[in-house]
Amino acid sequence: MGLFAYLLAGVIVAGLVWFVRHGPGYPRLPTLLVFGLVGGAIGGLGVNLIQGDSIDDLDGIGFTAAVLVALVLLVGVDVRVRRDED
């Protein structure tokens, strides 16, 4: 259940970033979704491993880490794509 929640958090964050920042010159939705999934998985599972919990454990700290890591990755992708166009 935990892994699914972390992936879902990454997808939701990616959707929100796309909703706020879509347009010409910005990353496309599939790109954002992939990075959101990766960020959510890394954040949530990383915290579980650090805490010594099972991989599928769901808690508030892991969920928060999933959202924050996904957001950081998505902002990095956004900045990188816009920099490459300049």
Walk me through what this model shows.
The protein has 86 residues and is mostly helical. The chain has one domain (2-85). It is built from 3 helices and no strands. It has helices spanning 2-21, 29-51, 60-85. It is elongated. It starts with a helix and ends with a helix. The model has no long low-confidence stretch (mean pLDDT 90).
Main attributes of the structure:
single chain, 86 residues, 0% strand
**Backbone structural class:** mainly alpha
**Number of E-type strands:** 0
Tell me what portion of residues adopts beta-strand conformation: under 5%
The Rg value, from CA coordinates, equals 13 Å
User: Which outline best applies?
Assistant: elongated
Tell me the domain tally: 1
Integer average pLDDT: 90
Total of helices:
3
Sequence of secondary-structure elements: HHH
Distance between the termini: 42 Å
Low-confidence stretches: none
> Level of helix content?
over 70%
| Largest sheet, strands/sense/barrel | none
Oligomeric grouping of the chains? single chain
